[in-house]
Specification:
heterodimer; A: eight-stranded mixed sheet; globular; B: globular
Chain lengths: 425, 472
């Protein structure tokens, strides 16, 4: 079995070169030049770990704060925050990390292609660990169709009871639900014909059949797969400008039912498409599929208004900058968030020139794009993102804030099915 | 610290190996190995570092004590000190592993400040205890003398390649290697190849096939059809094999880089032709330990019993094997299940089985193994029964959740690859004479480097996952 040394040295030298070159790379490079990974939508963990833990603890100790130092030391080293952060930093700061990830994703895709080679499915999984599917013609990335579970009906019952209690407790307030039907919850998902036990819109049907009296409900419905492609981004779960405009019109009509002197609908002039933006949405980012699409918006004249978060006035969204041509060009940058504004737990819009009628919008990131438009018809518009306040007790909020209309905007879980975002009375 | 982590491969390992290789052979190298092992352990479980050190002190002292009485021809004192040592080791294991489970059974029971429910399980405790017991028992039996050099004892007990998840070493096997000698290129080359193969088993197979397990085991088993349930069970069987065998390969490879030849733990267990054969191929170091220190002494002690002696001894050993994995019903039932099957096989069934066609032997063995994993894999008894019901088709062939609903089609090539790689077939194919020796050698090494890069890509893409057998 013995070979000459040459044979052994080939593998040995390459292996040791590989494993021993990373540490010097980190040392020589010093500070990590990249702080944020747009692809992953998060900040990368860096190696400034001892500064956060050990040195701070030592400083506390020197200043006589032995209890703080002990707590910090315990949290960092005994409860392993330091070790965990170090592991994450080593992953995040690895040289050529994205090239390696691309290799892994390519291998994953090879396995998926092999698995589906002889199947007629119109869409196949976008990644091994991904919940998304990519169409065979590589034009869109979709969530897989949602499964139907009997238990969900009990959750919907529970939400209906909550809504009924609120309507009864606040008879002077108008309650609206605007349900966003997404492709995975609809009867039109391209994979609906293949899998069994799928939702296909049954939850909303159940909700509408059992909805409490006094609640005004409408649905952003899609009537075909082409509808989905028309109103939603092809690589992102959010609605695109066509969806946003349609939703605004439908919500306006909804609110108009009890708000007869509502101001005129806002009108826009032209679509603006950013020629140098190739929008790669969350589904593209999460599945590492380099698909993208043009990014279009419209510009409205909304009149003077202010936006507040935690009592402080803020600038919500960067639409003005975008329209002046100032925006990031990085691949995978989240332009939906960049243009319209990111998620906020609680904020409110004030249109000082409008009559004294106030709205509360409860929802999630879908409403980010709509808020200024809807708020332009009210004096104050509060916006609560349920993800930040899953235990929201709405009656308490309504007692503390002058609200005339409550509008819930969202897909299944936010509108009626999730126990986590229950909208407690 | 996980062997399959960036911190281990690219920080810990090169630093430790560099120090180890540049220092002169002998005690200095043992010091490096021991210090590295302490860092390795503390990285994952610094709270139990004092226990680890106590383990060393206690076993070193008991070893000297037993040796002294053995040499002084004081058998009673030798036996007392040996039992005392064994009890101390077992008490530490009970404290560090079973106390929390004890707390679950007796929720109101407390002693002082000890909160049984919060009691963290010490990393590698079962492996460490059995390694320590081997040390004391080998000295007590006069097979090997106690080590005067504390570094030898510390290195044997806590050397990091085998500290967390074995293989469980017998002192008489390792003792001759405790004076680190020359490490030649062949050893290093072998170690690297073995490490890469282990990494690939863990990262490319176990950590991807586990997605199937998570999906199928994550849903209500009453909704599973027989096909999906069997797919989940086969996936679990592959995951537990590749996870554990992958770790062992890495441990053996790293051990060899430091000049130690650690014992093998697996020999293609899923090609076994009987359950007796299976236990000669699965977790060999544990089986070997039980055979050496429990089964053979029991056989000797009960040599005059004629009635079901071997069968009852097997049952005792496998009850303990189940208990070794944890004090929960699924492990104990799993152990007893195997004990019963083995008892039946040694009672004559095994001989009859050998007379059947090979395919029948494989089908029988794989069925028993899969049933065993079904018991092993689900700690909740009601859920386990529901899953068994799904396996026998109580919910029909497809159930409410089929392969497409759970998006499992993707993983079929991986499962097939897992099945192929759990047999010796790929190695046999590669050893074929289709290329000349030198070229094949280089090509093989290139393939190993390619596998290493691919494994690395998967670690960076998915993060690293904990090893399943580390919790035992």
């Amino acid at each position: 079995m013995l070979r000459n040394k040459r044979h052994y040295l080939f593998l040995i030298s390459f292996f040791f070169l590989m494993i021993s070159s990373v540490l010097p790379f980190w040392i020589i490079r010093g500070q990590n030049p990249y702080e944020r990974s747009w692809l992953e939508g998060r900040y990368l963990v860096d190696f400034q770990l001892l500064n956060r833990g050990f040195f701070r603890a030592m400083k506390d100790l020197i200043h006589g704060n032995s209890e703080t130092a002990t707590n910090l030391f315990t949290q960092q080293f005994i409860l392993r925050d330091f070790q965990k952060d170090m592991e994450k930093a080593a992953l995040d700061q690895f040289p050529f990390r994205f090239n390696f990830i691309q290799i892994a994703k390519s291998a994953d895709r090879g396995v998926i292609d092999l698995a589906y080679a002889f199947l007629p499915d119109p869409a196949i999984p976008a990644g091994m660990q991904s919940e998304f599917f990519i169409t065979r013609d590589h034009t869109a990335i979709l969530y897989g169709p949602s499964l139907y579970e009997e238990n969900t009906l009990r959750r919907i019952d529970s939400r209906i009871a909550n809504y009924a209690a609120l309507i009864e407790g606040f008879p002077d307030i108008h309650f609206y639900v605007y349900y966003i039907e997404r492709i995975q919850n609809s009867p039109y998902h391209p994979l609906n014909g293949i899998a069994v036990n799928l939702e296909r819109g049954q939850y909303f049907d159940y909700f509408i059949e059992n909805a409490p009296t006094g609640m005004v409900i409408d649905k952003f419905d899609i009537t075909s797969y082409e509808d989905h492609l028309k109103y939603f981004y092809h690589t992102d779960h959010h609605w695109n400008i066509h969806g946003i405009l349609r939703a605004y019109e439908e919500i306006y009509a909804l609110l108009e039912q009890n708000f007869t002197d509502i101001s005129e609908q806002k009108v826009y002039h032209d679509f603006i498409t950013f020629s140098d933006i190739y929008f790669q949405g969350s589904e593209s980012r999460k599945s590492y599929q380099p698909l993208g699409e043009p990014f279009s918006v419209v510009d409205y004249a909304l009149g003077p208004y202010r936006v507040y978060e935690n009592g402080q006035e803020i600038v919500y969204g960067n639409s003005a900058d975008y329209l002046r041509g100032i925006y990031p060009k990085d691949p995978y940058y989240n332009h939906y968030e960049g243009f319209y504004g990111g998620d906020k737990g609680l904020m409110w819009f004030e249109f000082p020139n409008n009559p004294d009628r106030n709205l509360l919008v409860i929802g999630n990131s879908y409403d980010n794009a709509l808020l200024p438009l809807i708020a332009s018809h009210y004096h104050l518009t509060y916006d609560v993102d349920l993800r930040y306040y899953p235990d929201l007790k709405l009656s308490e909020f309504l007692e503390e804030h002058p609200v005339d209309d409550v509008l819930v905007i969202g897909e299944n879980s936010f509108a009626f099915s999730s126990p986590k975002y229950g909208i407690q009375p | 610290m996980s062997f399959a982590s960036i911190v281990f491969i690219f920080i810990f390992l090169p630093i430790t190996l560099t120090l180890y290789y540049i220092l002169p052979r002998g005690n200095w190298r043992l010091v490096v190995l021991i210090l590295a092992s302490l860092v390795f352990f503390a990285w994952g479980d610094v709270r139990h570092l004092p226990v680890l050190i106590f383990f060393f002190i206690a076993n070193y002292s008991f070893g000297l004590l037993i040796d002294k009485f053995l040499r002084g021809d004081q058998p009673k004192l030798k036996r007392v000190s040996m039992w005392l040592g064994v009890i101390v080791n077992l008490l530490i294991m009970f404290y560090c592993k079973y106390l929390r489970i004890f707390g679950n059974f007796f929720p109101d029971f407390t002693i002082g400040q000890i909160d049984f429910h919060q009691q963290a399980i010490m990393l590698g405790i079962s492996y460490l205890t059995f390694t320590s017991l081997s040390y004391l028992l080998d000295i007590s039996r006069g097979i090997k003398p106690a080590q005067r050099n504390p570094l030898n004892v510390a290195a044997y007990l806590i050397m990091f390649p085998k500290l967390i998840q074995g293989p469980i070493t017998l002192f008489h096997d390792i003792e001759p290697q405790l004076k680190p000698g020359k490490i030649d290129l062949e050893d290093i080359h072998w170690g690297i190849r073995r490490f890469i193969i282990g990494l690939a088993k863990k990262v490319l197979l176990a950590d991807t096939i586990i997605l199937v397990v998570n999906k199928i085991y994550g849903v209500n088993p009453d909704l599973l059809g027989a096909g999906t349930a069997w797919m989940g069970l086969i996936a679990f069987s592959l995951v537990i094999y590749f996870d554990f065998a992958g770790y062992t390969d890495m441990a053996l490879g790293i051990g060899r880089l430091f000049g130690f030849k650690l014992p093998e733990n697996f020999n293609f267990p899923y090609i076994s032709r009987s359950i007796t054969d299976f236990w000669r191929r699965w977790h060999l170091s544990l089986t070997n330990w039980f055979r050496t220190y429990v089964f053979l002494p029991l056989e000797f002690a009960r040599r005059r019993d004629k009635f079901f002696r071997q069968q009852t001894n097997i049952l005792i050993v496998f009850f303990l094997t189940g208990l070794w994995h944890g004090a929960s019903w699924n492990f104990i039932v799993w152990g007893i299940f195997y004990g019963l099957i083995l008892a039946i096989e040694v009672s004559g069934f095994g001989k009859r089985l050998k007379q059947t066609p090979v395919i029948v032997q494989h089908i029988y063995t794989l069925t028993i193994i899969l049933i065993g994993w079904a018991i092993f894999s689900i700690p909740d008894i009601n859920r386990s029964l529901s899953f068994m019901g799904a396996l026998v088709g109580l919910n029909g062939l497809t159930g409410d959740l089929d392969l497409r609903s759970l998006n499992l089609i993707t993983y079929i090539p991986l499962i097939l690859a897992g099945i192929v790689f759990s047999t010796p077939l790929p190695a046999k194919l590669f050893k074929g004479k289709f290329l000349n020796s030198s070229f094949r050698w280089v090509l093989t090494d290139l393939a190993y480097l390619g596998i290493f890069v691919l494994s690395l890509a998967y670690i960076l893409s998915n993060g690293f996952q904990a090893f399943m057998y580390a919790k035992f």
